[in-house]
Design brief:
alpha/beta, 4 domains, 27 helices, 55% helix, globular
């Protein structure tokens, strides 16, 4: 370890060449962190007007020395890369924005690009070209951001451009150059791993995944008699894959958080009691302690197996989202937007399914979708209803118990849809005069499915191209987003008419029929807004003759030729039709 660990930023960059290794996270700071970075500099400058000698300490760095590979001091940044990268972005932006920066030539040579050593600071490989050209300005070509992290690098640059005043650049750069850091420069990765685990196990905030990574690497080091560097490099390689998958996953809609996936994996594949899977590091520690008497090799073997399977889970979750157009049954779950209780089972069934086209996984998704719609969407059960049973199924399925194959899995999932009095509660809600308010998301989903049912050529309709899941989840713009339209609107002239749904329940139309399932139809937000609250006769032409939605065009078939208006009888007729559709598809 280097003897002098307290250094100024100037000393650090004069001495070392920096690289963010690929096993680290890519750049992740957002506006909140950038704002704190700038405000911290402003606060320090203000403080030093009254206390000139007060040092500015900005944190701790853990660096892995690469002296053996280069003729000059080169280091990998093991810990502290987010603040260090931000410092470079700030300095590079200052050089571009404010031409009168003092010692500009020194800064360019020691922070940006040295005439002999070349580029002084490199990000992970996938962002390296953009960082070199667009942020540092070494190359004249502007790279197009093709990842979340590269977009965040550019966002940071633009944030500093917009929020740092012209007269602030020089004092802030001077302040940064004189700022102090504790820089631990370690010669071997094993020692670096020990320090990282020691630091971060004592209060430094990490994600659960980062904490588990650190803990497992530390245990590999402790239990390795030889070649621990090679073993740690292998773990780094696995986590490099995990972090890249997490970054790509963030580009898809309605995805689970990285720590949630870790908990779901533990729930699916590790033995647990109570809520142990929610504390992954503690649960993993328990598993390792249980095999301690088997010796170091057994511990290392368990860790390698766990990490390999964990990597596969993150990869599988990403693959599922990348295959949403083919995995229709899963996509239906995404639209319903109640995925959390199903994830351990989704991860487990996808992992276990070796059939062509993932047929077993699709069947499991179908049964989960049925339960989700019926229990949470239509029966309005509380959000945690069935969670414990779903977790129990996930733990049992695929275990050493031969009775727990797909047949038992499907049976359990099917039975869940008949539990908690779901059929009765569901039926009551579908017929409720407050159905719209009770089940908006489910109503939208059902009517989207119904529209696609018609577009498939059912009900003697011509075949049309189906509406995509994207039209609900990620529309091109808000105007094109699918929504619910009241056929007879709240401010419609019918609204205060006294009507009767059953024989003895006469009341105003708005109280007894307005929010019924039969009075709802699929529409886009822009189209819905244009119709406003017109009387039905004015809506009629637009709904039945010029609509792009078949479910609007067929409304006329529910109307009595004698009345030729949208009344209680028409709503009842359509409600019966939609109820039959629900029964046929989710009964």
């Amino acid at each position: 370890m280097n003897d002098k660990i307290l250094k100024t930023i100037d000393e650090l960059f004069t001495e070392y060449q920096f690289t963010i290794p690929n096993y680290q996270r890519s750049y992740a700071w957002e506006e909140a962190q950038l704002e704190l970075f700038v405000e911290d500099l402003r606060h320090q400058l203000k403080t030093q007007t009254t206390d000139v000698k007060k040092p500015y300490f900005i944190g701790t760095l853990l660096l892995h020395s690469k002296y053996n590979q280069y003729s000059y001091p080169a280091v990998d940044v093991v810990d502290g890369q987010q603040r260090l990268t931000t410092t470079l972005i700030f300095i590079a932006t200052a050089l571009k924005e404010y031409a009168e920066i003092e010692d500009a030539d020194f800064i360019k040579s020691n922070y940006i690009c040295h005439p002999e050593r070349g580029q002084k600071f490199k990000t992970i490989e996938k962002d390296r070209n953009l960082f070199r050209s667009t942020i540092l300005g070494i190359d004249s070509v502007d790279e197009v951001p093709d990842s979340q992290s590269s977009q965040k690098l550019i966002f940071a640059r633009d944030y500093f451009r917009q929020h740092v005043k012209l007269d602030e650049w020089q004092p802030m750069i001077t302040q940064l150059r004189e700022a102090q850091v504790l820089a631990y420069v370690i010669d071997d990765l094993s020692t670096a791993t020990q320090i990282f685990e020691f630091q971060n196990d004592r209060g430094k905030k990490l994600t659960n995944l980062e904490a588990v990574k650190s803990f497992l690497m530390h245990n590999v080091h402790l239990n390795s008699k030889s070649a621990s560097e090679e073993k740690l490099d292998s773990i780094h390689s696995h986590f490099e894959s995990i972090f890249r998958d997490i970054e790509e996953l963030s580009t898809y809609p309605r995805t689970p958080e990285e720590d949630s996936i870790l908990s779901y994996h533990c729930a699916a594949f590790l033995p647990w009691t109570d809520n142990e899977y929610l504390q992954p590091k503690k649960l993993i520690k328990k598993q390792i302690n249980a095999i301690e008497d088997k010796g170091p090799e057994a511990i290392i073997s368990w860790i390698n197996s766990f990490i390999s399977n964990l990597k596969k889970s993150y990869k599988n979750v990403l693959t599922i989202y990348k295959s949403m157009d083919e995995l229709t049954e899963f996509t239906h779950l995404v639209i319903l937007n109640r995925l959390a209780p199903f994830w351990p089972l989704l991860i487990k069934t996808y992992h276990e399914d070796d059939s062509n086209g993932k047929l077993q996984f699709k069947n499991a998704c179908l049964l989960m979708e049925i339960f989700s719609l019926k229990a949470y969407g239509l029966a309005n059960l509380r959000s945690n209803a069935g969670n414990s049973h779903l977790l129990w199924i996930a733990k049992k399925f695929g275990s050493s118990d031969h009775n727990w194959g797909y047949e038992r899995l499907f049976e359990e999932l099917s039975n869940m849809s008949s539990s908690w009095d779901i059929p009765k509660r569901m039926k009551a809600n579908i017929q409720s005069p407050n159905f719209y308010n009770n089940s908006k998301q489910s109503a939208l989903y059902i009517l989207w499915r119904y529209e696609n049912y018609l577009r498939s050529g059912n009900n003697n309709q011509n075949q049309w191209s189906k509406l995509s899941w994207r039209d609900i989840v990620i529309p091109k713009n808000n105007a094109e987003k699918l929504s619910l339209e009241h056929i007879a609107a709240q401010n419609n002239e019918l609204s205060k008419h006294l009507v009767s749904w059953d024989v003895d329940d006469e009341a105003e139309f708005k109280d007894i029929a307005l929010h019924r399932l039969g009075n709802l139809v699929l529409d886009s937000i822009s189209s819905n807004s244009s119709k406003k609250d017109h009387a039905f006769n004015k809506k009629w032409q637009r709904l039945s003759e010029s609509s792009t939605y078949l479910s609007q065009g067929e409304l006329k078939k529910f109307i009595s030729p004698e009345t030729n208006t949208w009344d209680i009888a028409a709503i009842k007729n359509r409600q019966r039709s939609l109820t039959m559709f629900i029964e046929e598809h989710w009964g």
